[in-house]
Protein 1
Amino acid sequence: GTLDWSECKLLVSDLVKETAKTHKDRGDELHAALEDPGTVQKLMVAFDGDGDGAISRDEFVQKAMQGYSLPLPPQDEPPAKRRKVDAAPQGDDEHETARLVKKEAEEAEAQQRDKVYHEKMEEVDRQHRLMVECYEKASQAHSASQFDKIKGFKAEAAEHKKLKEEAREAALQFMFQRANKDSDGTWVDLHGLQVEFALKKTGEFIDRSKADGKSECQVITGAGHHSGPGGPLIKPKVWDMLRDRNLRFTEINDGEITVHLS
């Protein structure tokens, strides 16, 4: 069978309860997520692996094993590689003021980044809804023996599926570029990405670093403190990928590693 809207709504409710246990300070956001129909829609998009508008048992199991967390705005601070705010000497008003101004600017930039990202992801959801509608029309046409219309509806569904994937790629590419805008080429930051896209970018970064003759590079996976009750998502997958490629790595801190390329 497949999961319908009501079953996905129950799944969201369970996720909210589990997330609340480890994120007690985000109760208002969790309550809003539970009441927002868009939360259910995002879950359905995430679990619908083949994009046909239905969630099969295999798709559910596969995504559940990968892990899924509620789409709450990220709270992770920028990684150490990009955070160059010196601690202000006690009593030094000038340095303290500069530190606060820089912090406010970083927070404003993060809010704007998240706003643009969510707008881009709304386009993903919109294309998914249109795709599902076309599949439903094709099914209705089949039931009504209007076989001449089925091909057209399926073609429209395929186009919306293509546009959905392009919109998802654009949203993730936007997050990647914002996180890595200050990179000097020796490190890559995977904050805010989905697992598959993060693995793709990590592989590209390592291949490029090898081609440039580097002996090591740094990968910032994030610690995954805000990934939900299932724990970090990107970090363990990146580690697995590096092991599969027989690459040694050293953990710098809970969310950053040095990869040894030679």
Note: The radius of gyration is 21 Å.
Protein 2
Amino acid sequence: MAAFNLTKLVNRKLIKISGPDCYPYLQSLFTNDLRYLYEPDRIPKRKHAIATSNVLGTFMLNAQGRVICDILLYRTPHTRYECKFSQPGEAKEPDELLIECDANIATGLANTLYAYRVRRKVALEIITNLDVWCLYPRLNINNKQQITGNDVEANEVQSFNLVTIANEILDNNITIVNDPRLDLMGLRILSNSSYDYNNIKNEIRSKFNFDNLNESAIGKYILHKYRMGIGEGSEDHPEGSCLPLECNADLLGSVSFDKGCYLGQELTARIHYTGVVRKRLMPIMLSTDNTKAPPTMPFLSGSDIIDATNGKKLGVLRSVHRGGGLALLRHDQITESSKPIHEATQVPITTWRPYWWSNVNS
């Protein structure tokens, strides 16, 4: 029987942006094309992703093209159904979108967005009466920690307990949508903050045929996204320290290369059209004796990972939680003969190419 974990994402916050200029304002700031939220026919088809016009993965960059933060952008019941730049003298219709971001940078992001507002007719508000949840599959494929393209191509994806929904829900009390980045990231749920686990479970059971749900702590969700190779939040994407294509924005459908100009677009486009992204965020496992609770202090973000066979630097550690994590690595230099280790602790590291990397050259 398919089994799922339901986790309240206490590390995520929502910012509401409302006003008639929502679309042109955010279209000029975010890496992805907001027309996908208003015109579903434009959404590109991606393998291992669920096409949805109700939520959009994107990034916000600084003027130098470095990542400020990753974002999920949601429609609401008050989002209008067409995007356009209003003509002079034309009445402007109201509009509304929700921005999901790392809770630690929500205030800073709101201030940054406000600074770029200029004369746009928009209002910003950090939301305190909505919570973010995630429903995701409980994976158990012969106890394997690595999920590669070979597993998926061998049709073992059936045992991944894939969770998707055909009819997404948007109302004032609960929103249930597919995660647009990756199929195995499951469902994103926005609920009234008065809802607890039992309320969410009952809503899901009443609307969809999902039954075997377990409430899980945030740590299990973090390990799940690490296992998928998904970066999220300021720990995985330190502000000003990484490029969107290094964060796999292109592979996750979180950047558009034909939407026109946006903040930080020039460097992103130049890297894309040269066709070379030497470093990418990759999943890792620390080979320690105590995999349930390995020491965390020595594994500092930004510390070096080297190849034990020749001493060459392969990349840097990004984040670690209970033996799993992410690292920014030279994927072209990692071969079957490579022996990655964490230089400071000499702890061996296992890494692999995520199953959704089908278009990445070695």
Note: Residues 153-159 have pLDDT under 50 and may be disordered.
Protein 3
Amino acid sequence: MAVTLAKVLETAQGSVNETLKELTEAPLEEEDEGLATPENFWQELGNATQKIASEVAKLTLVLTQPPKPTVSIAQNIVNGVEAAWTTLLSSSRRSPPKGALLRKELRNAVLRIGEALATLLKALKEAENGSELQMTGRVWEACTAMEKVPRDNLAATRSLLAKEELLLTDALQEIEEELKCSRLSENDDVDNSANWTNQEKELLNPCVGLVRTARASIKKVGEAVRLKGHCRDSTGAEQLDRLAVAAEKLSPAVDTFVASIYPPMNKCSVSSTALAVVTVVREFLELARQCDVTGESDSEWLSFLLRAVDHNNNKVQPLLSPD
């Protein structure tokens, strides 16, 4: 049976999907000190990414513009796309940079390119009207995003901490805005049945204080990382990794806590989610105290924030005890 163009594209799509599965399931590789320098690593990766974008453009142009190519010509172009994808995979695995966080971000960027490529091959196979160009654009976007991957673990950690700080700021602003609206409605002739009860209002200040402390913690540790963080050696990179893991627990815990504060309050839910926030904030601050990014000059603000966590929680929990 003669090989068809659809079969060529289907085979290529299957090959890309198989490598995506392997990449997803494989553990993050450790750095090999004896291989490429960081500069060469990123240059090779950039060249491989540009090659994919170029080969994809060629494939889409040939398959969407008349006249239709022969299967042989199409096969050669598809081979070029697959070769470019294989080169990208190989380049991304050659001397992976220091730091699990950075290696994770790099792998995710490669996965996004591969997923977009597989989707494009499927669209070309099915000759979906107009979607081929859209899917090509997605491959290009994924390739462009590779340029924005941080070049070392310090940059990756700083970026993550900045995102977490923004999320915590949003959560704080959300609950503060809700409080403001609630106070305004109290002065108007409106139905207040959806507002907090007087007993619940006693909880609001320490609850908001707990969220403010979480936000202040990520802000101060972020400043310390910016000033003293490094990934020159494995110890520095590993410390940044641990801080990143701890930081990522903050916004989910705070979001769940803030959601539990809304009326009508469930005391058990507020109590348990408050304790969860206390746990992750204390863990984050204690970890920062143990890392090289903080020293004796930072002990004052670390101790202050730890006391603030306990202070607000000690105000919240008694008010939640059974009547």
Note: The radius of gyration is 26 Å.
